[in-house]
Amino acid sequence: MPKKQIVNGMMLKERIVTECSDESREIYDKGRFGEPLEDGRLQLNLTEAQYLVEKEKLMLVDGRNQGIVPDKLLKKAIRLEPNFWVRYQVYRDLRDRGYIVKTALKFGADFRVYGRGVKPGEDHAKWLIYPVKEGDTLTWYEFAAKNRVAHSTKKRLMIGIVDAEGDVTYYEIRWMRP
User: What is the pTM of this model?
Assistant: First the structure.
């Protein structure tokens, strides 16, 4: 049985930087996790790091070289981003379904999602995703603004609603002409 390849990384405030290794390049090449740095390392965001730590593909340490387990990383992430748990539930669900998920800050959304088998750079993202906790509300103005952004960037709008158990239900919203 082949040995499981684990990437080593260090948490520097709210970002994570991996070692420069074949394993980190493979994580990027296969799943498009993180963004490659000029020196061959990867920079991961908190959602990517949490996912990889949970999947036992990333071993994290802090600045004092102390190990960071999934629960500890989750607590740190929630302190840095109060909505992290909801965002992460949607991220993990989409990744587990085989989608590549990247941040979408420049689009005014949480995530952009590529169709299965499509990698960033090969084609454009198919959806903009907004994670929402069940019971939270959006005004019509906020809803219309999200829909307008998705439409103007030629992406589909999807709302991922996370319930108390962490299950996600998706609703896709589209403009229609009667």
Answer: 0.91
List 30, 75, 119, 124, catalytic entry:
124
- φ, ψ (nearest 5 deg) of residue 87: -60, -40
Q: Which residue among the candidates 51, 88, 91, 114 is catalytic per the annotation?
A: 114
Active-site residue 155, yes or no?
A: yes
Options 3.30.980.10, 3.40.120.10, 3.40.1170.20, 3.20.20.140; CATH of 7-79: 3.40.1170.20
- Residue 115: partners with Cβ closer than 8 Å, 6 or more residues away: 99, 123, 126
Active site residue 114: yes
Statement: residue 71 has pLDDT above 70: yes
Which structure tokens are listed for 115? 């169709």
pLDDT in tens, 128-144: 999 999 999 889 898 88
Q: Which CATH class is domain 83-173?
A: alpha beta
